[in-house]
C-alpha cells in the first residue's frame, strides 16, 4: 500500500532523523537519559502519526491521533512547557478529539473502502511530501546560524504565572479577540449542525 | 544533563508536518483529512515550544496557546459543516461532496 | 542521577499501590456498608475454613477470582482491538490522576528532601483535571466497541454527561485556585496550615463552601455514580456501556468506578479539608492557640499527617457510598438540566464573587 513516493519519503525521514541523532550523539560524546527518552518518544510519535493516515477505520485514525497528541504533551513537559502540556491534554486530547469521536460515531462510519486515492496520485503525494519535508528542514535550520548555546532555562519558565504575565500584557488584544472567536465558533457550530425547523 | 539539541525537535516537527500534509493529499474521508490538518497544527506547536525553550522566551508558548484555541474553534465549526453536508449527501467521501461544482 | 529516578519510581509505585488497594477495599466497604444501610447482612457466603471475616473473603478474594476466571466474551462483529482497549483506557487516567495529590509533607532523609507526592508539579491541579477529562474515552470506546445499540446509547449518554460536568468542575476549581493563588496541590495544602484569627485552621471549606458542594456534585457525576448513574442504568440499560464486557474487562470497569471515588475523595480532602494537615500540628509538634505545645519527633509528625490524609480520604469515600445508597437516580434530562442550568451558573457566580473578594482583600491568602 505504501508505494514508491511514500516509501521514498519514509526512508528519507528515518535516515535524516537517525543521521542527526548519530551526529548529535557523537558531538556530545555521550547518550544520556534525555536522549533516550527523546528517541523513544519521537519514534512512537512518528508511528502513531503514520497510523493516523494509514488506518482504514476512522475511529482507529482518531485514536492514533489521540496517542500522538498525548506523546506530544509528554514531549512538551520535557521541553519545560508544563502548562502548555496540560493544556494540550485538556483541550486537544480531551475535548477536540472527543468531538471527532462523537462525530464519527454519530455518522456511524465504519471502514473506508478504499482508504486512499488511486495509486498514481499517491506517488505524486509522496513526491510533494518529500519536497515539503526538504523545504521545511531547510527553512527551519536557516536561522540557527548565530545561535546562543542553549543553557538552563530561567526558574519558573513554562509556569502559569509567566504565561499569564505575557498573555495579559503583551498579548491582551489577541486574548480578547480569541474569546470573541470562540463565541462565534460556538454559535456557528450550533446553527450549522441543527436540523432545519421546517 | 545535556539537553537534546534543538535540531532534533525541528526535524521531528518537519516529519510530523509532512505526514499530515501527505494525509491531506492521500485520504478521501473528509474527517481523516481534518485529522491530518490537526496533526500539522500540532507539528507547528512542537516547533514553537522548541524555539521557546531555545530562546528562553515565553512568546512561543503564548503562540501555542492561541494556536490551540483557534484549532478548537476550527474543529467545532468544521465538524458541524461535515455533519450538515452528511445530512444532505449521506457521504463523507471528499470526491462525492461536490456541491460547488457545476 | 540514578537515585533520583529510583526515588521517583518508588513514589509512583506507592501511589499506584495506594489507589489500587483503596479501590479494592472500597468494594468491600460498599457491599458491607450498603448492607448496613439497608438493614441486611450483605456478602458473607464465601469463607476459608469457616472464617468469613465479615465479608472480606467474599469481596476481596472470591469475587476477583471469579472475575479473573470468567470467559471473555467478544460480541459478534465487534472491533476486537477497541473492545480490549476500552477498559484499559478507562482505568489508566483515573489511577494516574492520583499522582499529583500530596499525601504528606516533605521529609528529609540525609541531605535529600523527598516530597510525599508522586509528581510534584507546578500545575498539579490542571494535571488532575486533564486526567479526569481523559476518562471520557473509556466510556465512548466501551459503548462503540460493543457493536450494540443499547451500549452505544449508554456510551453516548455517559460521555455527554461527563463533558457537561467537567465544565462545572473546572469552574469550581478556578474559585479555589483564586483563593489560594496557586495550582500546586502541595502548596495549597501548606497554605491550609495557617490559622485565621489565630485559632481557626484556614481550610478551603471555610473560604469556599459553595465551591465544595459544586465540586462534590460534579465529582460524583464524573464518576457516574448514583444519583448520576443513568449511563450505567443498572435497572434500565442492563449495564449501559459495559454490558457486553465480562471477566477481567468488567473487573477493570468496576475498579475504575471505585478508583474514581478515591480520586474525588482525595481531591476534596486536598482542596477543601486541609489535605494531610491536622489542625495545630506543625512540623515539630502540636502548637495550641492557648500557648500550650506538645513537641513530637519529626517522623511521628509525618506519620500522623499521612494517617490523617488516609482517614479523611476514607471519610469522603464513605460519604459517596452513603449518597449512593440514599438518593434516587436522576433522569437523564434532569441530570443535564442540573449540570448546565444549575451547577454551571452557580459555579460562574461563585467565581465572580470570589474574584471580587480576592481583589478587594488585595490578593490570595
Largest sheet of chain A: none
Helix content estimate of chain A: over 70%
Give the uncertain stretches of chain B in residue-range form. Answer: none
Kindly state the percentage of residues in helix of chain B.
over 70%
Explain this structure to me?
The complex is a heterotrimer of chains A (198), B (102) and C (365). With 198 residues, chain A is mainly alpha-helical. Chain A has helices spanning 4-28, 33-54, 58-78, 82-106, 119-141, 160-169, 172-193. Chain A has two domains: 4-141, NADH-ubiquinone/plastoquinone oxidoreductase chain 6, subunit NuoJ (Four Helix Bundle (Hemerythrin (Met), subunit A), Up-down Bundle), CATH 1.20.120; 154-198. Chain A contains seven helices and no strands. In chain A, α1 runs parallel beside α5 (119-141) and α3 (58-78) runs antiparallel to α4. Chain A is globular and about 50 Å long. Chain B contains three helices and no strands. The mean pLDDT of chain B is 89. Chain C is mainly alpha-helical and 365 residues long. Chain C has one domain (2-361). In chain C, 62% of the residues lie in helices and 5% in strands. Chain C has helices at residues 2-37, 56-69, 80-97, 124-133, 136-145, 149-180, 185-191, 204-207, 209-222, 248-272, 298-324, 332-361, and strands at residues 107-109, 112-114, 195-196, 200-201, 281-282, 285-287, 293-295. In chain C, β6 and β7 form a beta hairpin. In chain C, α9 runs antiparallel to α12 (332-361). The longest helix of chain C is centred in the first third of the chain and has 36 residues, at 2-37. Chain C is globular, with a radius of gyration of 22 Å. Chains A and B meet through α1, α2, α3, α4 and α5 of A and α1, α2 and α3 of B.
Secondary structure layout:
The complex is a heterotrimer of chains A (198), B (102) and C (365).
Chain A: H1 4-28, H2 33-54, H3 58-78, H4 82-106, H5 119-141, H6 160-169, H7 172-193
Helix pairs in contact in A: 1-5, 2-3, 3-4
Chain B: H1 6-26, H2 30-54, H3 59-89
Helix pairs in contact in B: 1-2, 2-3
Chain C: H1 2-37, H2 56-69, H3 80-97, E1 107-109, E2 112-114, H4 124-133, H5 136-145, H6 149-180, H7 185-191, E3 195-196, E4 200-201, H8 204-207, H9 209-222, H10 248-272, E5 281-282, E6 285-287, E7 293-295, H11 298-324, H12 332-361
Antiparallel strand pairs in C: 1-2, 3-4, 5-6, 6-7
Helix pairs in contact in C: 1-10, 1-11, 3-4, 3-5, 3-10, 4-6, 5-6, 6-9, 6-12, 9-10, 9-12, 10-11
Amino acid at each position: 500500500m505504501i508505494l514508491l513516493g511514500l516509501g521514498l519519503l519514509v526512508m528519507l525521514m528515518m535516515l535524516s532523523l537517525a543521521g542527526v541523532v548519530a551526529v548529535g550523539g557523537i558531538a556530545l560524546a555521550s547518550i544520556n537519559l534525555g536522549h533516550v527518552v527523546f528517541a523513544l518518544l519521537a519514534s512512537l510519535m512518528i508511528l502513531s502519526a503514520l497510523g493516523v493516515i494509514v488506518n482504514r477505520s476512522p475511529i482507529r485514525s482518531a485514536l492514533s491521533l489521540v496517542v500522538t497528541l498525548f506523546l506530544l504533551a509528554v514531549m512538551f513537559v520535557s521541553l519545560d512547557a508544563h502548562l502548555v502540556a496540560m493544556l494540550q491534554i485538556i483541550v486537544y486530547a480531551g475535548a477536540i478529539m472527543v468531538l471527532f469521536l462523537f462525530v464519527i460515531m454519530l455518522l456511524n462510519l465504519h471502514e473506508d473502502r478504499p482508504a486512499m486515492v488511486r495509486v498514481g496520485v499517491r506517488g505524486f503525494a509522496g513526491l510533494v511530501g518529500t519536497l515539503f519535508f526538504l523545504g521545511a528542514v531547510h527553512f527551519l535550520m536557516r536561522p540557527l546560524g548565530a545561535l546562543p548555546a542553549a543553557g538552563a532555562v530561567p526558574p519558573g519558565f513554562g509556569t502559569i504565572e509567566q504565561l499569564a504575565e505575557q498573555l495579559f500584557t503583551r498579548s491582551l488584544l489577541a486574548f480578547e479577540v480569541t474569546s470573541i472567536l470562540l463565541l462565534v465558533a460556538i454559535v456557528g457550530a450550533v446553527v450549522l449542525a441543527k436540523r432545519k425547523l421546517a | 544533563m545535556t539537553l537534546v539539541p534543538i535540531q532534533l525537535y525541528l526535524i521531528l516537527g518537519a516529519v510530523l508536518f509532512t505526514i499530515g500534509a501527505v494525509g491531506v493529499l492521500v485520504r478521501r474521508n473528509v474527517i481523516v483529512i481534518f485529522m491530518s490538518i490537526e496533526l500539522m497544527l500540532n507539528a507547528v506547536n512542537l516547533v514553537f515550544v522548541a524555539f521557546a525553550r531555545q530562546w528562553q522566551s515565553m512568546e512561543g508558548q503564548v503562540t501555542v496557546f492561541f494556536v490551540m484555541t483557534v484549532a478548537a474553534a476550527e474543529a467545532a465549526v468544521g465538524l458541524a459543516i461535515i455533519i450538515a453536508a452528511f445530512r444532505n449527501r449521506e457521504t463523507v467521501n471528499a470526491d462525492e461532496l461536490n456541491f460547488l461544482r457545476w | 542521577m540514578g537515585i533520583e529516578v529510583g526515588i521517583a519510581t518508588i513514589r509512583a509505585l506507592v501511589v499506584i499501590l495506594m489507589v489500587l488497594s483503596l479501590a479494592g477495599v472500597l468494594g468491600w466497604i460498599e457491599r458491607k456498608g450498603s448492607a448496613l444501610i439497608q438493614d441486611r447482612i450483605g456478602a458473607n457466603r464465601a469463607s476459608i475454613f469457616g472464617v468469613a471475616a465479615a465479608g472480606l473473603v467474599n469481596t476481596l478474594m472470591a469475587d476477583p477470582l471469579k472475575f479473573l476466571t470468567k470467559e471473555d466474551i467478544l460480541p459478534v462483529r465487534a472491533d476486537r482491538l477497541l473492545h480490549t482497549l476500552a477498559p484499559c483506557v478507562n482505568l489508566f487516567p483515573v489511577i494516574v490522576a492520583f499522582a499529583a495529590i500530596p499525601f504528606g509533607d516533605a521529609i528529609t532523609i540525609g541531605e535529600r528532601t523527598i516530597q510525599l507526592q508522586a509528581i510534584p508539579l507546578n500545575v498539579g491541579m490542571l494535571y488532575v483535571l486533564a486526567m479526569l477529562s481523559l476518562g471520557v474515552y473509556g466510556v465512548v470506546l466501551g459503548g462503540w466497541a460493543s457493536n450494540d445499540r443499547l451500549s452505544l446509547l449508554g456510551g453516548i449518554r455517559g460521555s455527554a454527561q461527563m463533558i457537561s460536568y467537567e465544565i462545572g468542575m473546572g469552574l469550581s476549581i478556578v474559585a479555589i485556585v483564586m483563593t489560594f493563588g496557586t495550582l500546586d496541590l502541595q502548596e495549597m495544602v501548606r497554605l491550609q496550615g495557617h490559622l485565621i484569627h489565630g485559632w481557626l485552621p484556614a481550610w478551603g471549606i471555610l473560604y469556599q463552601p459553595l465551591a465544595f458542594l459544586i465540586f462534590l456534585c460534579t465529582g460524583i457525576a464524573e464518576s457516574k455514580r448514583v444519583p448520576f448513574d443513568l449511563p450505567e442504568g443498572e435497572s434500565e440499560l442492563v449495564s449501559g456501556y459495559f454490558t457486553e464486557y465480562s471477566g477481567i474487562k468488567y473487573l477493570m470497569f468496576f475498579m475504575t468506578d471505585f478508583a474514581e471515588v478515591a480520586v474525588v475523595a482525595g481531591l476534596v480532602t486536598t482542596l477543601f479539608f486541609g489535605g494531610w494537615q491536622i489542625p495545630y500540628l506543625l512540623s515539630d509538634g502540636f502548637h495550641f492557640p492557648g500557648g500550650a505545645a506538645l513537641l513530637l519527633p519529626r517522623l511521628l509528625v509525618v506519620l500522623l499527617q499521612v494517617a490523617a490524609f488516609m482517614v479523611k480520604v476514607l471519610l469522603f469515600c464513605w460519604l459517596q457510598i452513603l449518597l449512593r445508597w440514599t438518593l434516587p437516580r436522576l433522569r437523564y434530562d434532569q441530570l443535564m438540566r442540573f449540570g448546565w442550568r444549575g451547577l454551571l451558573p452557580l459555579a460562574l457566580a461563585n467565581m465572580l464573587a470570589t474574584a471580587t473578594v480576592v481583589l478587594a482583600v488585595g490578593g490570595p491568602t
